[in-house]
Design brief:
Elements (H helix, E strand, L loop, with lengths): L5 E5 L3 H17 L3 E6 L6 H6 L2 E4 L9 H18 L3 E5 L1 H14 L3 E5 L3 H5 L2 H15 L4 E4 L2 H9 L8 E3 L23 E5 L8 H14 L4 E5 L8 H9 L4 E2 L7 H6 L2 E4 L8 H8 L4 E4 L14 E4 L4 H13 L2 H18 L2 H12 L3
Parallel strand pairs: 1-2, 1-4, 2-3, 4-5, 5-6, 6-7, 8-9, 8-11, 9-10, 11-12, 12-13
C-alpha cells in the first residue's frame, strides 16, 4: 500500500523540471501527494502552480562560484526542510544535488538525487573539478538513492568512493514522453533540408564547431537550413550570432517553450556536444522519427545506433562534422525516412519516460 506523501523538488529553475519531470509531478499530484518546488523565481512558474504544485522561491545562481552565496543556499534549503518536513526530497542540477543532499544529511531527510551529467565544472578538470567531486562526496554519501544517466558517470562516482551499488543505479536519462513527442510525417522531399540544433548555445555544446561547419556546408549546399534554438550562454557573443543569422548561415530562433514544431519541420537533429548525461533533445528528435547527428561522446552516443538511427562524428572536429553532414545530405530520401523510423522504435524500446517514473516511485515509496 502506498501512503500519501509530501514531496519536495530542488532544482535551479523552471525549464529542466517542467520539460523532464512534469509527468512525475502530475502523477504524484493526481494520486493525492503534495508537491513542493524550491526553485528560482520565474514568470513561467505559474505553469507549475496550475498543475497543483506549491512554489518556494529559492535563489539559485546556477553558474556562480561565490562561497557566500552557496552558503546562503544551503541555509535556505535547511530552513525549508525544517519548516516543510517533506517525506522525500528529489534533487536535480549540480548545486541542488550537492547543497540539497548536504542539507538533507544535516536534517536527516530522505534525499533522492539525479546526476544528469558531469557539467563543465567536472568535465574540464582542474581545481574546480576536484572541489566539486569533494562536495559531491560529502553530500551524496548519505543519500537514500542517487540516479545516474550513463555508465561512465556512474563508474566515475563509484570509483571515487562517492556512491556504492546499494544506494545508486542507472536510469535511461530523463526518458521521453512518447505521446507528446509522437512520430511525425517526414518533411516533403522537395522542401529544404533543415538541420535542427536545440540546446543552450555555448562552447561545451559544440556550438562553434557547428557554426564553422555550417559555413562550409552552405558553400556547397546553399539551400540547407540550420535552425538554432536555445538561450545564449556567457561564452557566446550575441553580435556573432546576429551576424551568422543575418548572413543566412543559421536561423536563430532564441529560447522557445515548445521545440516540437521545430523538430517536426526538421530533417535531422544535431548535437556536437563535448559531454552529456543523456542528451534528451536527441531522444525527443528520434521519438519524432528524425535521424540523429551527434558526437561519439558519453551521453550522446547512447542516443543513436551508428548507421541505423543516426550518424556519429568526432568531438571538437569540424572536418568530421562536415563529413557527417555531407553523408546525411547525400543519403537517398527513403534512407533518411527509414533512419527516422528506426530511431522512433529505438526510443520506444529503451527510453520511455514511464520507465523513469517507475524508478522514482520505487525509491520514493520504497516499493
Amino acid at each position: 500500500m502506498i501512503f500519501l506523501k509530501k514531496i519536495l523538488f530542488l532544482a535551479h529553475g523552471f525549464t529542466g523540471l517542467y520539460y523532464y519531470r512534469r509527468e512525475l509531478m502530475e502523477r504524484l499530484i493526481k494520486e493525492g501527494n503534495e508537491v513542493y518546488l524550491a526553485i528560482s523565481e520565474s514568470e513561467d512558474n505559474k505553469l507549475f502552480e496550475e498543475m497543483g504544485c506549491k512554489i518556494i522561491p529559492t535563489k539559485v545562481d546556477r553558474r556562480g562560484t561565490n562561497p557566500i552565496a552557496d552558503l546562503k543556499l544551503i541555509l535556505s534549503y535547511i530552513k525549508t526542510l525544517k519548516k516543510l518536513k517533506p517525506d522525500a526530497v528529489l534533487t536535480y542540477t549540480i548545486k541542488a544535488n550537492i547543497y540539497g543532499s548536504l542539507a538533507c544529511g544535516l536534517t536527516k531527510n530522505k534525499c533522492i538525487s539525479n546526476v544528469t551529467g558531469l557539467g563543465t565544472s567536472i568535465a574540464n578538470g582542474g581545481l574546480l573539478s576536484k572541489l566539486t567531486m569533494t562536495l559531491y562526496k560529502a553530500g551524496l554519501r548519505k543519500n537514500h538513492h542517487t540516479f545516474f544517466q550513463n555508465q561512465p558517470n556512474y563508474d566515475l562516482f563509484k570509483n571515487a568512493g562517492i556512491i556504492n551499488e546499494n544506494n545508486s543505479s542507472i536510469i535511461p536519462g530523463s526518458g521521453v514522453n512518447l505521446t507528446y513527442h509522437c512520430a511525425e510525417e517526414y518533411p516533403d522531399e522537395n522542401s529544404p533540408i533543415r538541420i535542427v540544433f536545440v540546446s543552450r548555445v555555448m562552447r561545451d555544446k559544440g556550438s562553434f564547431e557547428l557554426f564553422d561547419a555550417a559555413k562550409i556546408i552552405k558553400e556547397k549546399y546553399p539551400d540547407v537550413i540550420f535552425d538554432v534554438i536555445g538561450p545564449l550562454e556567457e561564452d557566446v557573443d550575441p553580435e556573432y550570432i546576429k551576424e551568422l543569422d543575418e548572413k543566412g548561415i543559421i536561423k536563430y530562433h532564441g529560447s522557445q517553450n515548445d521545440i516540437h514544431p521545430y523538430v517536426k519541420q526538421g530533417w535531422a537533429n544535431i548535437l556536437p556536444s563535448y559531454h552529456e548525461g543523456i542528451a534528451n533533445v536527441l531522444l525527443e528528435g528520434s521519438a519524432c522519427a528524425r535521424p540523429v547527428l551527434a558526437t561519439r561522446v558519453t551521453g550522446c552516443k547512447e542516443t543513436y545506433i551508428e548507421g541505423e538511427t543516426g550518424i556519429g562524428f568526432n568531438v571538437k572536429d569540424v572536418d568530421d562534422l562536415v563529413r557527417a553532414l555531407e553523408q546525411f545530405i547525400e543519403m537517398p530520401y527513403e534512407d533518411k525516412v527509414e533512419m527516422g523510423r528506426k530511431g522512433r522504435k529505438f526510443v520506444e524500446e529503451n527510453y520511455d519516460r514511464n520507465i523513469v517514473i517507475e524508478a522514482y516511485y520505487d525509491k520514493i515509496f520504497d516499493r
